[in-house]
Design brief:
Elements lengths: L16 E5 L6 H14 L3 E3 L18 H13 L2 E5 L3 H9 L4 E4 L1 H4 L2 H11 L6 E4 L6 H13 L5 E5 L16 H10 L5 E3 L1 H5 L5 H10 L4 E5 L17 H11 L4
Parallel strand pairs: 1-2, 1-8, 2-3, 3-4, 4-5, 5-6, 6-7, 7-8
The protein binds phosphoenolpyruvate (PEP) and manganese (II) ion.
Length: about 260
């Protein structure tokens, strides 16, 4: 039995929550520019990865701790809450020290019980909200297991993010959505908010809108979207990042008023 407590930051009077920001923090200027455009649109929670779990080495693996200083400026200048990915207890310690408001756990982390256990223990005694992505493999027990480890450590302000599942070979999606698994998660833990990450499901800009539409038709609590002030030159996940203006068009299409 997992006890779920509401995350006030996500519950804006029954409205859909939209969390947006770049795949990776790349420079202070990129973060401030992207965040100020998103903030003017009414987005209240800013995402950015500073430690990036890249599939292959010798690609951009994130700016690291320097990004925490930049995110402090984002908070000061826009008043937005900031969410970053953590994948080990050191990341947790640095995030907490630097006033990060919310944490997310990536798909590769949720898939690893050892990593999950270490992270859960490092969070003990804190009350920070944690967003838990589905594991890369379509195993609902692993997803629930990650939530249980957090719950056993007293972390109850949690939400889930459906970001699709790995498959082999060419598919329409970068990570195939399995709506039934997320629906089953909702059946088993009804109070748990579930967000959709159309960016990592789709892997391309054109797929963001149709995937988000499907998610909203299924009553998801909101969206977790990658947005960059200049997606074409992004250092990671360039193909799936959209500009703040494109996000606005998509939200208008979805009839989401922030
Ligand atoms: C991300 O959100 O940038 C990310 C690395 O996500 P995932 O764990 O879904 O691959
Ligand atoms: Mn990404």
């Amino acid at each position: 039995m997992i006890e779920i407590k509401p995350i006030e930051e996500l519950n804006a009077q029954g409205k859909k929550v939209v969390i947006a920001g770049p795949c990776s923090a790349e420079s202070e200027a990129q973060l401030l520019e992207t965040a100020s455009q998103l903030s003017q649109m009414g987005i209240k929670i800013f995402r950015a990865g500073i430690w990036k779990p890249r599939t292959r080495p010798n690609t951009f693996e994130g700016i690291g701790e320097l990004g925490l200083k930049w995110l402090k400026r984002v908070k000061e200048e826009t008043g937005m809450k900031c969410v970053i990915e953590v994948a080990n207890p050191y990341h947790v310690e640095k995030a907490l020290e630097n006033g990060i408001d919310i944490l997310w756990l990536g798909a590769r982390t949720t898939a690893s019980p050892f990593a999950m256990q270490d992270i859960a223990l490092s969070l003990k005694g804190t009350d920070i909200p944690v967003l838990v992505k589905n594991p890369i493999n379509p195993d609902i027990e692993l997803w629930i297991g990650a939530l249980e480890r957090l719950s056993l450590a007293g972390i109850n302000r949690v939400a889930a993010i459906h970001r699709g599942f790995s498959t082999y070979g060419d598919t329409t999606y970068r990570n195939t959505p399995i709506w039934e698994i997320a629906a089953e998660l909702h059946n088993r833990i009804p109070e748990l908010p579930v967000l959709c990450d159309p960016s990592h499901i789709g892997g391309s800009r054109e797929l963001i809108l149709p995937i988000a539409e499907t998610a909203l038709s299924r009553n998801y609590a909101g969206l977790f979207v990658e947005v960059h002030n200049n997606p074409d030159i992004a250092l990671s996940d360039s193909n799936q990042q959209i500009t703040p203006a494109t996000l606005q068009t998509i939200l208008n299409n979805l009839k989401i008023n922030l």
